[in-house]
Amino acid sequence: MWDYTKEVMEHYRNPKNVGKIDDADAVGEAGSLVCGDALKIYLKIKNNIVTDAKFQTFGCGSAVASSSILTEMIIGKPLDEVKKITNKDIADKLGGLPPEKMHCSVMGYEALENALSHYLKEDVTSGKDKLVCKCFSVTEKQILKAVKENNLKTIEDVTNYTKAGGACGHCKENIQAILDEYYKTKPAKEKPLLTHTQKIIKINNIIENQIAAELRKDGGDIDLIDIDGNKVYVKLKGCCSKCKNSTLTLKNFVEATLRETLGEDIEVVEVEG
Amino acid sequence: MKQKLIYLDNNATTKIDSRVLEVMLPYFKELYANPSSIYSFGGIAQKAVAQSREQIRDFVNAKTDKEIFFTASGSEGANTAIKGILESDRTKKHIITTKVEHPCVLNLYKTLEKQGYKVDYIDVNSNGDLDLDELKNAVTPETILVSCMWANNETGIIFPIDRISQIVKSKNKDAKLFVDAVQAAGKIPMDVQACDIDLLSISGHKFHAPKGIGALYVKSGTLFSPLVIGGHQERGKRAGTENVPYIVGIGMAAQLAKEGLEYESTEVRRLRDKLESNILKTVFNSRLNSGIANRVPNTSNIGFEYIEGELILLHLSDFGICASSGSACTSGSLEPSHVLRAMGVPFTALHGSIRFSLSRFTTEKEIDCVLSVMPRLIDKLVKISPFQAELEELRNLRR
What we know:
heterodimer, A: alpha+beta, Sufe protein. Chain: A, Arc Repressor Mutant, subunit A, GMP Synthetase, Chain A, domain 3, 3 domains, three-stranded antiparallel beta sheet, 11 helices, 8 strands, 47% helix, 19% strand, elongated, B: alpha/beta, Aspartate Aminotransferase, domain 2, Aspartate Aminotransferase, domain 1, 2 domains, four-stranded antiparallel beta sheet, 41% helix, globular
């Protein structure tokens, strides 16, 4: 059960300004049937003032409520003000929406932008953070941040971290474009080539200072046995050697830590006995 | 005015039968002993557990009581069965299941895939029936486990477990068959011997016992490792002091469910059919999302084209009517039902799919009330839809 506010409930029960304006001055659309949310907004505009607005929505309770309240927010307002409305304003006016439902308010905002862009023949979205995944309302900046901070390489990675692309999948191409752009322009320096000895010392330090220290807390330990190219041979000791989850420890912790620090395709191999 | 509740979401959970609650209560109050205790006070609890085990045995028609283990949920039953079998032979890494299993099973398989298991997901057709040829082709000597639900929670479609068992065993006699019977229990007769099932799990709260209790059948002679290790309870296969009152409850619920099967297949079916056929007749943009045959008697999954499911549920809720939806928006996962998608339900109806699931407590009056509400409710919501041209076309088609 969603925790909807009184305002949301009132607006999906009795939505205001439902329908179509046949001689609309501007029409905007957002979403699609496939995504499970689709919205049309119709505007009458006179002397740069929105004199009437109507909407049609295919969507859940909060999508209908967001559309309904949006029409109320813009009727009688000059375009300059209408242009400034954001999805947060819509959600705030509804007394808030559950986080999973924020994409519904985004849809109203997008349809409005779409209508205004048509009417003003200008891109009102320029300068704003571009929305990439409409289903989960994930922006370009958010995706870039996740890619940078977590060294994400694939669309799947991005979906796991940000949810972007996880529902209808329409934005996957755009996510790939963001990834391509990022890795194309990313300066290649960052990873100076290490000599073999430097690499061994570095790996040894990481294992000693970061990994072994953690494992010892749980009564385990680890020894570096050998390094062959990107293969790091280690031996688990103490509790770790008997632990059923040792494979997980090896992959999720040891290997992940080394990869994160060295940024290479390090593979950790356990030496038995 | 306080509205009367019309509860048509019995595949989600059911009302506790008062006769079930009645037999449970003494075990919360005066009969609180630990069944493992040696004194006769403990013996009372032990007998109560034994009686319930017999009731469950009878419910699924197992050969002996020793084949029944109590669990805390259907999910626990599935986890115990699946992991227990895989642990028993770590050399085999191939599992077969279906695309439409319950998430509790599917998510477990997703995890197992990451651990090196190969999992084949068998398709269903647009009616929701399993592709038995694909199943047959999938079974190999490497297959350790075939896992299949008996009845689907969203559509009510019944899989032919006896046929599935024959197919699997004829190609690999060592492969084990695990049946998730959570949605079949209390709706259709179950016979683990006749169907040659190795493991089967049920959950009490789907047949008028409380939440938090389930049972697992494991055919004698089947090697499996316990999930919960500790004490000797449940013959070492599931540690933890027995939840006596709930075990007593599920036993009684199983007995009542078995006695009620006839009513289920006649009266519950009649009411379901009345609800379904009338909605399909009176609501122009409605369609049945599954085949009409091979279904449990209580479930109907109807798609309302060009309207979103959550919105329908919210408006039904205003009339006190409880149902559920395969729409993306209701779950919070934002992904529409994997079951309906596997069946190829068109996007026009996918997001507007509503599941009605009845029980032996559903009355004719309740069904009549839903039928009186439904056409005008959908009519109101249709007006909000941006797909007016498409809806108009549908309307003309139906005339």
